[in-house]
Fold this sequence. Notes:
- The protein is mostly helical.
- The chain has helices spanning 12-16, 20-25, 35-51, 56-65, 73-88, 99-111, 139-149, 156-172, 178-189, 197-207, 212-242, 244-247, 255-265, 272-295, 298-310, 321-345, 350-373, 379-389, 392-402, 409-412, 414-417, 420-439, 450-457, 463-486, 493-510, 519-528.
- The protein has two domains: 5-17 and 254-528, Orthogonal Bundle (Farnesyl Diphosphate Synthase); 30-216, Glycosyltransferase.
Amino acid sequence: MAMNNCVTRKDIPATIISSKEDLVKNDINIKEELPVEHSNHLLEIRNLLKNDRFKTLDMVDCLKKLCIDHHFHEEIESILKMLYTGISNASVYKHDQSLYEVSRYFRILRQEGYYVPADVFSFIKKNDGRFKGEIAQDVKGLMALYEASQLSIGELILEEAVVFSSNGLKEMIPFLNEDEVIMVKGTLEYSYQRTSSTFMVKKFIKDYVGTTMSELAKLELAKVQSLHRTEVDKISRWWKDLGLAKELKLARNEPLKWYLWPMASLTDPSLSEQRIELTKPIALIFVIDDIFDVYGSLDELIIFTEAVNRWDSNSLDRLPYHQRICIQALYDITHEISGKIYKKYGFNPMEYLKNTWINLCEAFLVEAKWFASGHLPIAEDYLKNGIVSSGAQVVIVHMFFLLGGGTSKESASIIDENQGITSCLSKILRLWDDLGSAKDENQDGHDGSYMTYYMKENEDCSMQDAREHVMEMISDTWKQLNKECLFQNQFSTTFTKACVNLARMVPIMYNYDENHSLPLLKDYINSMF
């Protein structure tokens, strides 16, 4: 039901979640950071950004891929504004520019929230509307076009471009050398827009080996890995002291896995406190989900939901001990986080945080009633409720306030009034989760799945057809998310990027292989620790 109900009561977590000692042993071999060397790299890159204007876009792209762009925020913003102004004045796109160059400009600017019209690609089409034949032989250009097409908000030319570029690249694979095949397959499987940058950082360090930026990225990675281990240690101690794992032995006990969500979304090293605090509500989402799935009878779950609605302890004596302490932990942690936000930003978001928990438990209860009665909802109704029960809204609202998004009633209200990004992320999460549920033979059938209900309504639909339908829905939702990030977005850049990073993390957390394990997640953990 919640952010990852596919791995409840399975052996997988034990194989991918290492102890602190294992994390230290698995750390990559990078020398300790030398402050002077670090400072020299920063200075050299700043000088290049200021003085070599013809290479600045390449550098901006490189800095972001290497996850060291936070050091150069002002310089990058200045460069992007200059480039966008140039595009608006029609001075950037010239007839002699290559498909690769145009695609790169388009991708980078759209990723950073600058709207570039899709008709900049009109030059790759003939008068009859077909793509020019010569671009089908341009491997570099096709890869860049494919990456650019992932920023589509539904434009026809980009819809056509993603099909044309992906088919063209696949057809060329037999004729490419080994290095080219690796690059093409990597582009098709892990497009930059839909893949966590932290997941790819080691690959990009190798790609840019020998550059000052690569050397700085190595130092930064070592520093960040050490920081992540410290944060995991704090989270593990907090979770142990909380005591829920002792009382709820069948519930998930995966503090490292819960921490991966904030780690991937809040990538700036300075956001350590926010990562730690955000992990706490994520942990509670999983625990409450397991209470609804495993521990509670329907009568108990109704009382549980009522207690969350009232947000008081008066009715808790009607619940079993393990449910009482869970609700008490929910009360205490929410008040604690609200207090920290108030102390830092001068606004108490208690009502907003409380309402997200009420909405979540009510959505869980709807599902519990469905399954207790044997009622099978139609796919549309299941998905509407499942978007809420994904738990994404709880995470997003907490993250919004932890990042200082609401400092008054007026600024806080935008998180309720602008649900576009939240809705898109919740839908992507729910659909990927259900893909994993359908593929996982160990599921006990209590959670349901959009695919299950969709296939019941479409009797001639095979499992493969249903999967393709869901993947198309995910792709369409990504287009809507792209649009939300470009237009009428009242949120801060930090918050918006954090939400996109959460969406990018979803496939890593849910992409099961044929052995019902999560190889991408295992690779990610090994890479980041």
